[in-house]
Design goal:
Radius of gyration: 21 Å
Bound molecules: zinc ion
Helix content: 25-40%
Distance between the termini: 38 Å
Number of domains: 1
Strand order of the largest sheet: 3-6-1-7-8
Amino acid sequence: MSALAVGAGPLYDIFYNRRRITGRLVVLTPLRIGSGGEAPDPTAIDNPVIRDSFGRPFIPGSSFKGVWRAFAEQVLDQLDNGDRGCCDPLADPCLSGEPIKELKRKYRDNRRALAEAIYKGLCPACRIFGSPHFAGRLRVRDLLLVEASWPGFCEVRPGVAINRDTRTAYSSRKYEVEAVPAGTAFHFEAVVENAAEKEWRDILLTLLPFTRGELPLGGGTGRGLGRVCLKEVTVATVTRANLGDFLSRGWEGIPAKDLEEACRESGIPAGGESGV
Ligand SMILES: [Zn+2]
């Protein structure tokens, strides 16, 4: 095993690698990410999409990351042959309660050993996407509008108010929701810090369905809304070998590869983009 595979395990006190994934997220069917959370208020007339300070719609990085994580949780433990399942981060996150207290007691005087023990106790999804006890490898920046792709307005779509008890539609209560029209595009950027080789492969593998338009975002996905496709994906990698270039010129100094090549380097055979 290479020094990188071993060394890029748990911690962040030493630089091993940093990767930047960029791309363009294209909206295929109207996208509804509300400013007031996922469930629009059925009594409100106006359910605007979330907008930046210039009034342009954007996609919070946390929304994209949430969908990515939920998919990763489903598949990563299967890939590991049931090695260990992924936790449910809301109901029962890794190391919650007594186990984390015990580790903190045990490694009271050795923070590095504590960090390594915490890392060992996490599921693959928590290692990549983070947990309350460990900063994950991956940060997804807010996806800002590709200005030229936007017609300058959002669609207004009829919504149906659902009775929370009977789960049926109120016939008398109609409301309207805003949605970002199909064809609009957003800049995608994610940064991956010190990922071990396997973690990086898992990140690429779970990103691929986005490039085929298979993972929808936002509300109303059951009704066909929120289909998106990630295109023109590139990957730039900083290691110790080109750290100098990165420090002097930033990402400009680091040549980017396309997704197919990045996948091939990680032993993933088919990383090409679909024609969606
Ligand atoms: Zn977990």
